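@channel sequence for tomorrow's demo:
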Amino acid sequence: MSPMFTQHFVTIFTVSRTSSENKTFKMGKIALTSATGKLGSAVLNAILENNLIDPSDLIVQTSSPLTSSKLQSLRAQNLTLRHADFDNPPSLSSAYAGCTSLFLVSSPRIAMDYHTSTLWHGREKHHRAAIDAALAVGVQHIYYTSLAFANPSKASVMRAHERTETYLKDLEARGRCSVTIVREGLYSESWPLYFGYYFGLGAERRSEVVVAGDGRVSWTAIADMGFATAKVLSEPGGKWKGKTFYLSQTRTWSLRDVARMVSRVRGEEVVLKIVSRKAYEDFYICEQNMEKPSVEWWSSTYDALGDGECAIEDDTLEAILQEAGRKPTTLDETIQDMWK
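structure tokens (generated this afternoon):
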């Protein structure tokens, strides 16, 4: 599977402040998980590069050893580090102590979802551990990064998100906390995963790519999502309280469009071959020697694409970018950059 799913977790906190729009709501200490991951690091970079939150007001937590070389850039910015591990709930409680808000990036441990459909045994187990630990130490508001599929969805990748969204909305309904659910767009940089595990533009030699379906997708660059998410976190919390929205651009591309773009950058035709889910699974398991649980879990994604679940009409991201004088990065631009 894509390395985008294998990053470590980091949490950032900001000092409490009172919303000018809602005097009863405090933004406070935001748990920004996965700040060394793709989305999380994009959010952190956007915060720092655009001076959205003072670095002295940030506390960063990581599941890695605090002396790890991968944290050097964070240490160089004089950010305070704390250790936290989803598999060790007490560590989460210690890390969240004194916080009033949590920004929770979904767990990358997708293998937890492969073998079971039982509630609280998939990735939602990690999400609940973080949420419960946060509430236990007085967190009042939770921002959760869901995914840009429908809810309910045909895609197995959305199952843990659906369950986490349900849990959060129930907590909100019972007055335990306020909630903001951000359905982050499908990364433009992740197109190879959807395009038949097509990793390494320079190394690939396939002239035919096998997939189990096609549909329009609002591919969105990680940097654009990172900036928009950072803006959401830095604005008065009352503005986003109780809301569920997408951060995706509204322009869409299909996998056939991807095939044309890849053909153009490679200078040779790459054909998209659409087969049944069973044929897709057999091809990648038997002929490409990929892990069966992973392929079977992933294949349902194409049912969701075919139903148009990932063609997003929410213009929230584009409005945030426009306000900053920016435009969404196109998929063509992303593929060109990856080729370079």
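heads up for whoever presents: The chain has 13 helices and nine strands.
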